[in-house]
Specification:
Elements (H helix, E strand, L loop, with lengths): L4 H5 L4 H16 L8 E3 L3 E3 L1 H31 L2 H8 L8 H5 L12 E5 L5 E5 L5 H13 L10 H13 L4 E5 L6 H11 L4 E2 L13 E4 L2 H6 L3 H9 L4 E2 L27 H4 L5 E3 L5 E2 L5 E2 L1 H5 L8 E5 L13 E3 L5 H16 L4 E5 L4 E7 L5 E14 L4 E9 L11 E7 L2 H20 L25
Parallel strand pairs: 1-18, 2-18, 5-6, 5-7, 7-8
Antiparallel strand pairs: 1-15, 3-4, 3-16, 9-14, 10-11, 12-13, 12-14, 15-16, 16-17, 17-18
Helix pairs in contact: 2-6, 2-8, 3-14, 6-8, 7-8
């Protein structure tokens, strides 16, 4: 069932579809901007095998987070300059090595809620905590629910988020959601509104003071430490009084970590299952790039390849928030001539000497057909580049969204078609969710907390200095 031409003529016009979405944004997010993308005519139905892929990979992503976190903490404790050059990269000195060495085990946590960017072929090309699009998913679902073509209550991302967070905290979530670095702030405001009253928010709900909050969300590591209560909240986290969504460390607010499962220095610490999550990803260094077969190609050698041998994306992978989001520093090397490719790669290799990290990631995108409704009322079908995004909580998959665009950089834009992906077979999905939640909740419960460092070596000020790596 979807939005057909007949449905549009019968009264569920594109005008009413988009007008309802615009009205929801105005009413709940106080935004006059309206819904600025396009909607597919119907939710996408994923078969059992396809949906299982999204469900089951959650545990492998947590394994990736955990291994990467342990490597980072050990590098801080032991003064591993080479690894810290990659993971601290161009982080300002005031929030670099000395800052991270001052933290304790409670601050070195994994992301709680996160979103993937992935191809239809099942490879994750980015991980973001928490990432954008949570509100867009909910708004599209609510719009489908208005037309009776999706069960908004059953598939609500906002409700799943609230219930998952309540279970994690063991109490009513009292959240402060910092929106200063949200790429689509009205979308996140809509999501906030739809999670209430399951979640209460500082600055919205009466009687809630800033230091009462037990859950802190931000779209930027730097934002966590630039807000008014940063020091008090670090202390409250140390005492076990609150959790961070994006933890107060730079590790998970950049792309550099995605190269670690493939890098010669660290690949032995990752399982093949974790490595299979991602397309081949290499650091760009003055020595060149590591290829899938283990060989190293110099910048010149790689650039001399034919375009068919340069199907890779060059991505800025550091912590500079002016260019590490929204595909601002992403280049498709197969579309560049040899000289232009060499200039780009050489600039990235030179940046490595300045602690600015770039990665080379194999291009594994694919196109698929999508039917969508224009604001003028036309139902169209196009063959466009597709991106999938899975939304995860601490113990399970929460939802899946698809986006199509006539460009290789697929993200929110006026020519982007958005749909939500729903599973076929209610009982199958319920069993999978219960199984995944049980195993992954166990992993979260067993994570070290304040005063219980477990096997994580907690960095302390002193020992060998890595100040040159920031």
């Amino acid at each position: 069932m979807g939005i057909s031409r007949t449905t549009l003529d019968a009264g569920a016009s594109s005008e009413s579809l988009y007008d309802r979405a615009d009205e929801r944004l105005l009413t709940l997010a106080n935004s006059e901007l309206g819904f600025r993308q396009l909607m597919a005519v119907r939710p996408r139905r994923l078969d059992r095998q396809a949906y299982d892929l999204h469900l089951e990979r959650h545990g492998r992503v947590l394994e990736f987070f955990d291994t990467t976190l342990r490597l980072f903490v050990e590098a801080l404790a032991e003064g591993d300059r080479e690894l810290l050059r990659v993971l601290l990269n161009d982080t300002p000195a005031s929030l670099g090595w000395a800052y991270h060495r001052s933290l304790d085990a409670a601050h070195f946590s994994m992301p709680v809620f996160f979103r993937t960017d992935e191809t239809p072929l099942g490879k994750i090309v980015e991980l973001q905590c928490p990432g954008s699009l949570w509100g867009e998913y909910q708004l599209v679902l609510d719009s489908y629910d208005d037309l009776g073509i999706a069960d908004g209550e059953r598939h609500s991302l906002a409700h799943r988020f609230g219930r998952s967070l309540s279970a994690l905290l063991g109490a009513t979530p009292l959240a402060h959601h910092l929106l200063d670095n949200a790429s689509i702030p009205d979308g996140m405001r809509y999501f906030i509104a739809r999670t209430r009253p399951l979640v209460r928010y500082y600055g919205i709900d009466a009687g809630l003071e800033a230091l009462d909050c037990n859950f802190i969300r931000s779209h930027s590591f730097f934002g966590l430490l630039a807000e008014n209560f940063a020091k008090q909240r670090l202390e409250l986290c140390h005492r076990g009084r609150l959790r961070y969504d994006l933890p107060p460390i730079v590790l998970f607010d950049q792309k550099a970590a995605m190269a670690l499962p493939f890098w010669r220095q660290t690949r032995q610490f990752y399982s093949d299952d974790v490595r299979a999550l991602f397309p081949h990803t290499s650091l760009v260094t003055p020595n060149g790039v590591e290829l899938r077969d283990g060989s190293v190609a110099s910048v010149r050698e790689f650039s001399l390849r034919p375009r068919s041998g340069r199907r890779y994306y060059l991505k800025y992978a550091g912590s500079d928030v002016s260019i590490n989001w929204g595909s601002r520093a992403v280049f498709n090397l197969a579309k560049l001539g040899r000289e232009a490719c060499e200039r780009r790669l050489q600039s990235a290799a030179d940046d490595f000497r300045r602690n600015r990290v770039w990665i080379l990631q194999q291009a594994v995108g694919a196109k698929s057909r999508i039917e969508y409704v224009t604001r003028e009322g036309d139902v169209r079908e196009s063959l466009w580049q597709e991106k999938l995004s899975s939304f995860y909580g601490p113990d399970a998959l929460l939802g899946v969204m698809s986006m199509h665009r006539p460009f290789y950089k697929v993200h929110g834009n006026r020519d982007t078609v958005v749909s939500i992906c729903l599973p076929e077979g209610r009982e199958h999905v319920r069993r999978m969710l219960d199984r995944g939640a049980a195993s992954n909740r166990k992993a979260w419960v067993e994570r070290p907390t304040a005063g219980q460092a477990g096997s994580i070596p907690v960095p302390r000020t002193g020992g060998s200095s890595c100040s040159s790596t920031r």
